[in-house]
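U., I forgot to send this yesterday:
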Amino acid sequence: MTTWSQGNSKILGVGKISKTLFGISVWLTSLDLECADYTADVVIYGGTSAAMTAAVQVKKMGKKPIVVSPDQHLGGLSSSGLGWTDSGKKEAIGGLAREFYHRVWRHYQSVDSWTWQKMEDYGNRGQGAPAIDGERRTMWIFEPRVAETIFESWVVEHDLQVLRGEFLDREQGVEMNGTQIISISTLSGNKFTADVFLDCTYEGDLMASAGVSYFVGREPNSQYGETLSGVQTQNARSHQFEGRIDPFVVEGDPKSGLLARISDQPPGEEGSGDQKMQAYNFRLCLTQVESNRFPFPKPENYDSSQYELLLRTLLMGSRHVFGKFDPIPNAKTDTNNHGPFSTDNIGMNYQYPEASYQERTEIIKEHENYQKGYFYFLCNDPRVPEDVRKKMSLWGLAKDEFLDNGHWPHQIYVREARRMVGQGVTTELHLRGKQETLHSIGMGSYNMDSHHVQRYVKKDQRGRAYVLNEGDVQINPGGPYQISYDSVIPKPQECENLLVPVCVSSSHIAFGSIRMEPVFMILGQSAATAAVLVLEEDQPVQELDYTKLASRLLEDGQVLELKKKIREPWGLGISPASLKGVVVDGAGVELEGEWSESSSLRPFVGTSYWHDGNGGKGMRTAKFPFVAEKSGLHEVKVSFVPSGNRAGKVMYEVSDENGLNKLEVDQRKGGKKDTIWYSLGSFVYKEGKEYRVSVYNKDTEGYVIVDAMQVIALAP
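Result:
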């Protein structure tokens, strides 16, 4: 894959004295150069949100933790730009995680917390629920500096011992006695001894160095009987190129070579496994408040040719670059990837999980330069449409965030790295409820969400090349699901005193849902609870009495199960089998974002329908993919019960042989009387070819309803 030149970077520490080991600068945290030996009951390696909840829980249970953090700034992504919390169902979040979000709420109750914006002007928009939940005294959207302040307040309140800038010696730093970790050593020369260890890093470095089995990449679907792991070209419809964009430097000329950031390799067989990573990026905190705005800097080794593919999408009319500026307090954003060419640096992170510290530093610098260049290009390149340049130039980095790093986030978004292969592996089947989950220690509920993995070239029937992305999956698991204790513990023959609450034992697609910051906090607390209990019983983590663990978790406010909604029997809905033509309903509907299931208003097709809760506007899409059974003209219909609380202007996109057809539907009125069906019109299809109908909740007021779609061949 085409890349640009990589710069150099230094790993940040906390002291004034450094020495170089293994090619990186390691900053000493002590005032002298003497190495020290530390002893604790539980050693927690990492500075993530999981590490902090783990440390607090150990201390609350009367034991001594030490947090050995490679990071200077605590809280991981929660303190580094991910303030638009990917939370799923809020009722699944308990314990210290809920306390964190309560403290966020408490902070913003003060008028003094609103520096750049009045509270009443904020808007209170969140994912699936209001950002500020006064009834539950929680707040789910926040500024990075506020999150870091909360984690630092925990350090003070609980008198936590935290050593920062301490990088595990991955080659020789884990001392083992059989299947027991005795101690770990860092590149500074410090040694940490404990009875139990937790690996709370995004990378799983301690786990790997201890000889615990793990996996990097995507398993084939066949490995665990899944449908959404492995190569995903058919499901990769989100953040995809609209229209056929030529991939060559000189359009139409393969000899000119591929544009930057397009792979010259095929994506691989559908559902097959590989060792590739979903893309990373930085979650940026941006603002338009002039007095708090820092202009996008020109990065090192800036090369405008890296963004030629982006330019072609803009010249075709796309304005996707403004699509994910999610509002957080004080007139700031959590800006994430959105669209076919955005802040995700696709294909540039494959080596990251196993890379040396120096190599990771270089990969991170490449991502930083890419993302800075992305915004600099949009603001300054004269070829960019003027409306885009003017609008993007109104934005910049928030001056009051990340003060010691040029207002740039401290932590890159490591969406996944290593994943343990532990005593039990959580898969898509567990999340969908098709396989029972035993020994719950917490719950998740977010979409099974994988970002794009690669960008490749495909040819149409005439042999013309065009570019596509592969890997994006955003599928709702169907509701909250349990996460097993077995997924955070290694196999007993590998290690008996280690718990891994971040790089959990799961498949690629299951991890796509588990990998949310609230879930990491939940699992950090639960793993710490288990660590203290096995310490007290002097037993391996695999032999812990689950009833004792569950009792303590419930005592501390963890949510281990939620009552499942009982689906309505078939007789109360219209059976899809009774309808003619091609019908897409139920599991066949691809949901992006957080949708709620309902059966309140009848009739409907199948067992239920979905709605957007009149929230998350612009964040939720539903797609009906189908394969045409015949060639020729077809009528396309969608079903919903019209009602006054429905949205009046719902955008539908229908693909056919003539391209994309955009239609606006008033779901308050619907179609003909006494029917739930609304005709979108007639469209031309070819037998055996795949098409889709998409529904968007962007710019709508009222509930957007998604039930079923029907395609009926019309007589010639």
